[in-house]
Amino acid sequence: MLIKLTLSLLILLPGLGLCMQGLHAQSLLIRNVRIVDVEKGRVLPPCDILIDQGRISGITQVGAIRLMPHVKIYQAGGKYIIPGLWDMHTHPDDPELWRMKPDAKSRDLLLPQFVMHGVTGTRDMAGSLEVVKDWKRRIQSGELIGPEIFAAGPLLDGPNPMWDGSVGIASPQRVQPVVDSLIREGVDFLKVYSLLPRDIYFALSKYANQIDFPFCGHVPNEVSCAEAAQSGMKSQEHLLGILLDCSSRSEEVRANKVDFGQAKGLDRYVLRQQLLLDTYDPQKAQQLFQTFVKYGSWHTPTLSMWYKNAWFEREVEKDRELYAYLPEYMRRYWTPEENDHLRYRDHQGFIQMKQQLYRKYEELVKAMHQAGVPLLAGTDMGANPLCFPGIGLHNELSCLVAAGLSPAEALKTATLNPAIYLGIEKDYGTVAEGKVADLVILEENPLEDIAHIREIRAVFKNGKLYDEQARARILDEIAAKLK
Description:
Elements: H1 16-20, E1 28-37, E2 42-52, E3 55-60, E4 72-83, E5 85-90, H2 104-108, H3 110-116, E6 119-124, H4 129-141, E7 148-151, E8 156-157, E9 167-168, H5 175-185, E10 190-192, H6 198-210, E11 215-217, H7 225-230, E12 235-237, H8 242-245, H9 250-254, H10 265-278, H11 282-294, E13 298-300, H12 303-310, H13 312-318, H14 328-333, H15 348-371, H16 391-403, H17 407-412, H18 416-422, E14 439-442, E15 456-461, E16 464-467, H19 468-481
Parallel strand pairs: 1-4, 5-6, 6-7, 8-9, 10-11, 12-13
Antiparallel strand pairs: 1-2, 2-3, 4-14, 14-15, 15-16
């Protein structure tokens, strides 16, 4: 069944010629394409899609529209079209990278790569608000190719923040002025971080709920995942804290009452993580997941980030050719000598623990999904090694499928779910009339194999077409500038 049309010019052929005269010079028709219905997990019959002024203005049977000469036609040849993808955890201006002194021109070249790989929207989870606002302005004006961006600005952390650029909140009394200031500066949401003290976190959650402003992020070390959900944290990132909450010995571990003998430092950390793996309680887990569902807590697992980190030595060789699209400062940072995430590679127990942890994260994601916990696809692109702009999201979807989601369910985490989460489903998330024409045409059906998400024929950003030739040219130009 074809998607319902509301424009009369697409319903009756006799009136089409006259109505088509109102179309703009940038109007475009995608001829003979199969819509992947991400909401219901099915492929619709071949159709034509009319784009006008950056939006889908109509969808009808193939050949049913009589066109005026100025309307451009893209022949899709019966291929598959999906909504533009969203990466819901990105850091193109990662504060962790600031010590590498990134140059602005090289950093800007990360943005077009998202779009060339089908990622037309992102959630920026920390960085310079001025940089992100400048990106938004230039993308809006057409000066810079890039995705839609919803941004947090600086991290909200404790009095001694972990990363440069964070806002350290020293007391509960400082919460309201800090939050009000950030809202005035134009953040789209707040991101809390790991070192935020318990009393300050709850003061922030109370005020954010009072003014109905979304907050998300790392569950602070002094707060449980259940408490974060109950207090209104809209999304929790990286699965942090979940294993602790699901441990049969969680209270002992949280109170530092577990005897790890003489182990110190990294050895103690490895033993602690192993204890959480060994004491995982499925019943506690189900209770926690139902709490997430009850309070509408979304989760961004960033599985691909954990995977690339756990198997870095193998994965870096597979991804070596992609380094051509990285700024020099990122290539330097994505090494064990520089990168905080790649330390201790010579500690065999540490690497084995990371790999065990990843397998448990796969189980968690499957169980959370089956329990009805809503998921978002995100990569943690930025300082994290091998999390590439755009392509990283393809990896994330593959990881989600390997964890137990179907291709249709994984695709939803990067299309409809982000739109619902952000409250923009009227404009994004599905291929439907009236929505923004952020679209991706694929060679094969992604519902049969999620790997087909990598086989891109064309990308449309606000209705502007980037076909295979344009995408190849832009990516080649980026690589040449980054040599």
